């Protein structure tokens, strides 16, 4: 997000605009928490995780009154165009805000979940994916040394992008994602055969949104089965380690391109759209489509996890 902020600020400054950062997201907008940005104030942030502007959930912005207060603060500050970086909640808020107040608004996709329609990848996803894979590699050392079965839970909310791709990249023996229906009995049989057969250790990557429940729920189901009494099973939940840390090169480049594209879209008179990268080309998608349409997972990749074991 910092790389995107830096790119957007510098592009807009180059175009002769004044640029303000809004601290704490929509809540900061309601409270008029603005800070003027310069070329210098966004230097030395491209390598930083998190966001220097901070982030916040805003219940006030969910109300028409809250959004009206935000619009009034923007007007008072002379802000006539907005760039919002975030996930589906941010973009849904942006669409409603535009409908009500008509302040041109361009969204940038920022979420580790990669679940936004209109872009092949979201800002933060690649970094989270790499963190997950690095951790799976580390967990594999213990799994291998102790002949253990590990259930590794990764984030992604209701989407399985991180799980599927970290599973493939980390060489997991199995991946469980919310996009497919999981039959617990088939899972038990498969994992048991993996442990009993050629694999003395196995890693199963479980998406937190897996419909059977997360890794702990699945572990309980396995432990309750007599077949698993001799199997040394552990659960590792990667959690918020996936949301932080210095961004990957791929994320920095994506964020820089999208930050510049967002300003260009505003300058070209676009409003209520999200900028994304599809087949390596900048694409604009109406904000509403971003969160009402579903980005599909590549099911062919699921077959890879089975094939490669
Ligand atoms: O949507 C991004 C995400 O990181 C999800 O993957 C995860 O479920 C959620 O946010 C965690 O949110 P919080 O930090 O509020 O617990």
Describe this structure as you would to a colleague.
With 309 residues, the protein is of the alpha/beta class. The chain has two domains: 2-124 and 247-292, 3-Layer(aba) Sandwich (Rossmann fold), CATH 3.40.50.450; 126-243, Phosphofructokinase domain (Rossmann fold), CATH 3.40.50.460. It has helices at residues 2-14, 25-31, 64-77, 88-101, 125-146, 161-169, 184-196, 215-223, 249-267, 287-292, 299-307, and strands spanning 19-22, 34-37, 82-86, 105-109, 149-154, 174-176, 202-207, 233-237, 273-278, 281-286. Bound molecules: 6-O-phosphono-beta-D-fructofuranose. 6-O-phosphono-beta-D-fructofuranose is lined by residues 87, 111-113, 155-157, 208, 243.
State the gist of this model:
The protein is built from eleven helices and ten strands. The chain has a four-stranded mixed sheet with strand order 3-4-9-10, sandwiched between helices. Strands 6-7-5-8 form a four-stranded parallel sheet, sandwiched between helices. It has a two-stranded antiparallel sheet with strand order 1-2.
Topology:
Elements: H1 2-14, E1 19-22, H2 25-31, E2 34-37, H3 64-77, E3 82-86, H4 88-101, E4 105-109, H5 125-146, E5 149-154, H6 161-169, E6 174-176, H7 184-196, E7 202-207, H8 215-223, E8 233-237, H9 249-267, E9 273-278, E10 281-286, H10 287-292, H11 299-307
Parallel strand pairs: 3-4, 4-9, 5-7, 5-8, 6-7
Antiparallel strand pairs: 1-2, 9-10
The structure holds 6-O-phosphono-beta-D-fructofuranose.
Residues 87, 111-113, 155-157, 208, 243 line the site of 6-O-phosphono-beta-D-fructofuranose (F6P).
């Amino acid at each position: 997000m910092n790389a995107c902020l830096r790119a957007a600020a510098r592009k807009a400054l180059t175009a002769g605009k004044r640029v303000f950062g809004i601290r704490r997201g929509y809540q900061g907008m309601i409270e008029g928490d603005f800070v003027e940005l310069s070329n210098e104030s966004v230097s030395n942030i491209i390598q930083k995780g998190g966001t220097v502007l901070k982030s916040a959930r805003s219940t006030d912005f969910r109300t028409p009154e809250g959004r009206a207060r935000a619009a009034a603060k923007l007007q008072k500050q002379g802000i006539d165009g907005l760039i919002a970086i975030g996930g589906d909640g941010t973009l849904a808020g942006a669409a409603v805000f535009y409908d009500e107040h008509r302040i041109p608004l361009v969204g940038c996709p920022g979420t580790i979940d990669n679940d936004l329609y209109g872009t092949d990848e979201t800002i933060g996803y690649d970094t989270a994916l790499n963190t997950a894979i690095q951790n799976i590699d580390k967990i594999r050392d213990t799994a291998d040394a102790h002949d253990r079965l590990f259930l590794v839970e990764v984030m992604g909310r209701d989407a399985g992008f991180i799980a599927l791709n970290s599973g493939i990249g980390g060489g997991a023996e199995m991946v469980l994602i919310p996009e497919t229906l999981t039959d617990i009995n088939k899972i038990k049989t498969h994992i048991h055969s993996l442990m009993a057969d050629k694999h003395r250790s196995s890693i199963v990557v479980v998406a937190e949104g897996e419909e059977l429940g997360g890794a702990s729920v699945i572990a309980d189901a396995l432990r309750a089965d007599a077949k698993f009494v001799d199997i040394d099973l552990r659960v590792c939940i990667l959690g918020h380690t996936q949301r932080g840390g210095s961004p990957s090169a791929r994320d920095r480049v994506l964020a820089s391109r999208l930050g510049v594209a967002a300003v260009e879209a505003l300058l070209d008179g676009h409003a209520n759209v999200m900028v994304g990268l599809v087949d390596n080309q900048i694409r604009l998608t109406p904000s509403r489509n971003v969160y009402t349409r579903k980005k599909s997972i590549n099911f062919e990749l699921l077959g890879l996890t089975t094939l490669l074991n």
